[in-house]
Structures are given as structure tokens and as C-alpha cells.
Design brief:
alpha+beta, 3-stranded antiparallel beta sheet, 2 helices, globular
Length: about 60
């Protein structure tokens, strides 16, 4: 669990707590907050108690 107010802070705090996540995050992740996929960047606010999921981005065509 990390404390963060925005999606960008979540990623920074996760890497700070678990440096091995830097590679997968740099490779591309999507962020879902309370079941809603965030597409507006890293400044989306996160309410206390929200569920946040990271998903590896799918590539291909």
C-alpha cells in the first residue's frame, strides 16, 4: 500500500518502495482507479481508500 493523491504519485511511490518495478512501469502500464481506466495522464486525483490497479499495456494489432 502506498499513500498518494494522484496517479503519478502512485507510480513514484511504488518505485520508491519497490525499485524493481521501474522497468515494468517504464515499459508501459495502464492505471485503473475504482474500476475506471484513467486515460488523462498522471495528474488524475485519487481519493483516500480508492482501489488502484496497474495493468501491463497490451501491444500488437
Amino acid at each position: 500500500m502506498v499513500e498518494a493523491k494522484t496517479t503519478g504519485e502512485v507510480l513514484r511511490e511504488l518505485v520508491r518502495a519497490h525499485p524493481q518495478l521501474q522497468g515494468p512501469i517504464d515499459a508501459g502500464v495502464s492505471i485503473a482507479v475504482d474500476g475506471r481506466i484513467i486515460a488523462s495522464g498522471l495528474s488524475e486525483p485519487i481519493a483516500p481508500g480508492s482501489e488502484v490497479y496497474l495493468m501491463q499495456r497490451l501491444r500488437g494489432g
